[in-house]
Amino acid sequence: MCNPELLSRADEAREIRWVPELQEGKIESSAEALSFCRFRPRLHRRRTPLAGRPRPGTPASRRKRRMRLNVEPLARRNMRRDGTAKCEICGHSFGYMLIHNGFNSSGYGYCDRCGITALFSAYSPRVPKGIDVGFHGPITPDAEERVEQCVCGGHFRGKAAPRCPRCKETLSADKAAADIERNAPGTAGGWRWQRSWSGLYAIVIEDQLVDDPWRAEPAG
Ligand SMILES: [Zn+2]
Ligand SMILES: [Zn+2]
Q1: Which bound ligand lies closest to the C-alpha atom of 172?
Q2: How far is the CA of 150 from the centre of ligand 1 (A)?
């Protein structure tokens, strides 16, 4: 798969002609459109916000570009899905994946505005030195200070909650228990859902996962 970050500007100008894919069913979400290169459509693809795009070359645009590249759909990451659950407010069904942050050696946070998940690997070379990140559970307030904003402008917080991808209301960890336990093979052996958004498990909804969005520290 193409990683536009690896292409130099010259390559991009010479080789890639971005064409928006606006046919019905091809728009990824209300906020983003998928574009592909006319010449190598299978290789060069990217996501573009439909509105509110920052001017190219500004720090905001660089940050958005970086974050956009990080928010990859699950299918492309070859990640599993653990089942579907239903929003108790609007009735929308969505796919999800649970992450055991102990086995995964990670910490997590949810965006306090849109509810997407950020995972922070203990093995990332970008982990800031000298702070308690909160690995194996939600990230600490110290860690939150060192994390990039979400693409939506919100902040990843250890105490935030995931949200329904349609109505954007926060989900109830208690009410999700019925769906999560029904879908989990371990339930027959006595496993029970933690019934909170601050335990060992994090949830990733509809593929919306950002890996290690640590803020770049100033050089020196
Ligand atoms: Zn967000
Ligand atoms: Zn909903």
Answers
A1: 2
A2: 5
8-state DSSP, 64 = H
C-alpha dist (Å) from residue 79 to 21, 75, 132, 163: 25, 6, 28, 20
- pLDDT confidence of residue 217: 76
What does the pLDDT read at residue 109? 98
Better-predicted residue by pLDDT, 20 or 143: 143
Residue 70 alpha carbon to ligand 2 centre in Å: 25
Q: Which residue is associated with the tokens 């070359």?
A: 57
- Whether residue 192 contacts residue 184, with contact meaning beta carbons closer than 8 Å, is answered with no
Ligand that comes closest to the CA of residue 87: 2
Distance 163 CA to ligand 2 centre (A): 8
Whether pLDDT at 66 is above 60: no
How far does the centroid of ligand 1 lie from the alpha carbon of residue 201, in Å? Answer: 20
Mean pLDDT, range 132-138, rounded to an integer: 97
For ligand 2, the distance from its centroid to the CA atom of residue 171, given in whole angstroms, is 8
Q: Is the pTM here over 0.85, yes or no?
A: no
Which amino acid is located at 31 in the chain? A
Structure tokens at 198: 């601050």
Cβ count near 77 (within 10 Å): 11
- Centroid of ligand 1 to alpha carbon of 13 (angstroms): 31
The Cα angle at residue 76 between residues 134 and 160, in degrees rounded to 5: 30
Length of the chain measured in residues: 220
